[in-house]
Amino acid sequence: MSFEVQPVPIRLSGRFLRRLEPVRVAVMGLLTYLLLVAVAPLRSTVTDPSVMAIVYAALGYLGLAVGALLYHTLFPQKAAPTLLLSAPLPKRLFLIALGLSSLGVAMRIIDRLVLRSVPIGEDFASVRAQLEATSASPLSAASAIIYPICFGIIFFYFCLRKEDRSRTLGIISTIVFLYPSLEANLSGTRSQMIVSLGFILLTRSILVDNLKWLRNPIVLTVGFFLLMNLFFLIFELRLEGMGMDFYTSSQTSGYAFTVPPNNFATYYLIENRGFLSSLMGIIVHITQYYCHSGYEYLYIFDKLPNKPLWGAYNFFHIYKFIGMVIGDTSVNELIANLDIRVGIFATFFVPLFLDYHWGGPVFMIFGGFILSLLWRATARQPTAWFPLTAYMSIVLFLIPVTSFIFTAQGLYIIVSLLTMGVLIHRLDASGRRLTATMRKG
Question: Which among 4, 129, 294, 313 is least surrounded, fewest beta carbons within 10 Å?
Fold first, then answer.
């Protein structure tokens, strides 16, 4: 008589997954934002904030909660256990994910360096100018759909059986995962770095037996300060390209329009106080970057156009693709002619209002329902759905900052990780059954 030996299950943190419940993530993001606003060395220039903007934001958060409550009422289930067991990811599916993401990265490099002649090594302004001056090629469009799988590749790697994890696969996976951050450093785009950081933190938190060194408080502290310095360095290099110093930027930039430094911060920015002045410069820049969105939202809400775009703003790339197919580019002109300040964050709610006006809270109800469904699916089959849940958690946490559906190529990331999730879900039916068996046993 022969017995089939079950593989060792992948141990995941059900306790952490419970923290990724959509409403909980959104509330934590809001509280974090309000705390930073409270302690930031900034002052507001918004003298007539929109009361309706506050009402709209409150209705948006309420809509998210109502959608989640509706889902949990219709489909009640037990909470995920503290320790979540999962069948390992089949190696063939990991190789598909690694192959597609590597192909996407290679296509993106060819598009940037060969087809569009982006001047790598030049200042950020030159890189951005070249990207804007040259239209995206079909190669770029194709790569944008598959290369975001790289954000989930580290998680996929550690979901393999131990005997399937080789040093070579680990090195390749790490390189592929880090590519968006490298590209962001070369082009001076910090939003992609935020996404990569979010995936690192979420992935190390869900994995019980791996990446333990990333839980070390010393490593986290040093990493945090290095990242803040990198953000500031990128900003300084961008200022050099524009021939502007930091103090002038802190007073006149798009961020400073609504939140210039307060008198306390200004004193240290003007006076040469060595390390303290440098530290204040970093704090002012980071808090202006993160906190200006709420003030911009209060300033601009009553000035927004009255005609809804019905999704053309947040889901611009889908509309653009349809327009290319049918030969209608009017949506490009419509978005380009919007009377909003380009490059300035204005919370998730400005893009939401542009698309749906006062129907936005209804959209949030739908979002709360769908994201709760995704969260439950992640508990059942984490190997398929955790990367998408991780990105949507980033979107929800950053609601007070901007729409990460629209910015940071978020829509491409969502489509890419959704496609990979469906693929794993469909092709790993035996893994689903084995996961259920492991949890019963």
Answer: 4
Cα 91 to Cα 160: distance, rounded to the nearest angstrom? 7
Q: Is residue 127 pLDDT above 70, yes or no?
A: no
Given a contact cutoff of 8 angstroms between Cβ atoms, the answer to whether 343 and 46 are in contact is no
CA distances from 297 to 48, 51, 56, 100, 399 (A): 12, 11, 11, 39, 12
Q: pLDDT tens digit string along 39-85?
A: 999 999 999 999 999 999 999 999 999 999 999 999 998 877 888 99
Q: What is the DSSP string of 49-67?
A: --HHHHHHHHHHHHHHHHH
Please give the Cα distance from 189 to 184 (Å, whole number): 5
Q: Which residues have a Cβ under 8 Å from the Cβ of 430 and sit 6 or more positions away? A: 87
Look at residue 42 and give its three-state secondary structure: strand
Q: Name beta bridge partners: 13.
A: 83
- Report whether 355 contacts 333 (CB < 8 A): no
List pLDDT tens digits, range 299-329: 999 999 888 888 888 888 788 777 777 777 7
* 3 state DSSP class of 207: strand
Q: Where are the alpha helices (DSSP H) in 188-329?
A: 190-206, 217-242, 246-252, 263-270, 275-300, 316-326
How far is residue 305's CA from residue 301's CA, in Å, rounded to a whole number?
9
Task: Answer whether 0.85 is exceeded by the pTM.
Answer: yes
Do residues 390 and 202 lie in contact, with contact meaning Cβ atoms separated by under 8 Å? yes
Q: What's the number of CA atoms in the CB half-sphere (13 Å) around residue 177?
A: 20
| Single-letter code of the amino acid located at 301 | F
pLDDT at 2 over 50: no
